[in-house]
Structure formats: structure tokens, C-alpha cells
Amino acid sequence: MKNPIIEDLEQRYTAKKYDASKKVSQQDLAILLEALRLSPSSINSQPWKFVVIESDQAKQRMHDSFANKHQFNQHHIKSCSHVILFAHKIEYARSDFGAVIDQGIEDKRMTIDQKEAAFVAYGFVQANTDDKGQHRAWTKSQTYLALGNALHTLARLKIDSTTMEGVDPELLNEIFADELAGYDCHVALAIGYHHPSEDYNALLPKSRRALDEVITVL
Ligand SMILES: Cc1cc2nc3c(=O)[nH]c(=O)nc-3n(C[C@H](O)[C@H](O)[C@H](O)COP(=O)(O)O)c2cc1C
Fold first, then answer.
1. Is 166 in the pocket of ligand 1 (CB under 6 A)?
2. What range defines the domain where residue 88 resides?
3. DSSP β-ladder status, 160-164 and 48-53
4. Count of domains in the chain?
5. Is 163 close to ligand 1, i.e. is its CB under 6 Å away?
6. In this structure, what CATH number is given to the domain that contains residue 51?
7. What is the pTM of this model?
């Protein structure tokens, strides 16, 4: 299909080896971070935090988080340009939603008189409370929307990426305890530019299930 959106999605793929000499520009990084901020979420909850790992020191901490698990992803950390931790809020309190409403007032989506009525949407959060009184499954789902948005944005920017669910949440949350306080990270995204000769995935054709297997039009 000849269409710029489809062409972007066809050319993007998961990089398996990065060229350590190439870095994402601050200008492109700013576009990506703004795209993350603009990601949609249920009731506009935005129950996420994105930790951008850029410095050598932060990369060393990220590298160390693979000490026990998923070492197959570890080599990306020092060769890619940046890593972004996608973290979801463990407990999404009424006050968290209050901050979203206050921002809505500041952005002139509603008036202060409508504030109390706006809290009715918090019922979605209450309906998604687990038996520990937490909201992990619901907040994590929202965070994956931001991940999808990031992958599409990166495709447009022609920046390579590697989504990594192969992280060690336990150690990661311990090593980044200060930055992730109140949040949990189960997925990270390496970004950069693939190695010109050592990225086997760059040459493989895209493979997906057939359209009629995944889509039903009624
Ligand atoms: C949620 C998620 C987790 C993933 N985790 C890893 C991972 O830990 N390591 C890895 O090399 N690829 C990982 N991938 C990449 C997928 O295997 C890849 O997206 C899929 O095979 C489709 O291939 P493509 O991205 O090249 O089109 C992950 C992708 C997603 C969306």
C-alpha cells in the first residue's frame, strides 16, 4: 500500500544492534518527549512517568539492572543513544486526578465550578482497583498507549528503537528507586541508530498475520 503512514510503519522494526557512534539529536529527542506528553489516556489520567536515560552514569545504572535477568538486552544500553523507562503509577489517588482536573481548568477546558462534577470520571479508577487497593493493571495499560505513540513517532523521525519488556522490574525499581518512587517500570525503550552491518533484524522482511485474520469488518 502506498501511503506515508504505512511506509513509516513498514520500515520501522526492532533494532538488535546499535551504532554507538550515532546519537539522537536534542531536537528529535524533544519531539519524542512532547509526543509522549501528548499521549492519550483513559479519563486523561496520564498515570505515567518517563525517565530518560542519557548520561553515561545513568546508562551504567541501567546496564547494572540486567545483572540477574534478560542479559540479551543489556548490550543495547551502552551502544544506543538513550533509554526511556516507561513507568506506571502504583496507586492512582483521587488527588492525582484532581491535578489533572486543575490542569484542565488552567487550560480552559472547564471552569472551576465544574470541578466537583468532573470527579465523576474517577469512578473508572475505582472500578479498576485491585484487591490490594492499587491500580497497576489499569495504569500500565495507559502507559502502553504512550509506548505505541512513541514507536510511531520514532518511525516518522527515522530513529531506530528496541522495546524491552525483557527488563528486571525488581532490580530496575531498586536501582532507580528515587526516580521511580510510587511508580513501577516493566518496560523500557532503547532508541538510536542501528549498526550498519551487525543488526540482523534490519535486513529481515516485516512479518505480520494476514489482515483477514486480525480484522473483522461487520
Ligand atoms: C511490549 C513489547 C515488548 C518487547 N520486548 C522485547 C525485548 O525485550 N527484546 C527485544 O529484542 N524485542 C522486544 N520486543 C520487540 C518485538 O519482538 C517486536 O516488536 C516484534 O517481533 C515485531 O517486530 P518489529 O518490531 O521488528 O516489527 C518487544 C516488543 C513489544 C511491543
1. yes
2. 4-214
3. unpaired
4. 1
5. yes
6. 3.40.109.10
7. 0.97
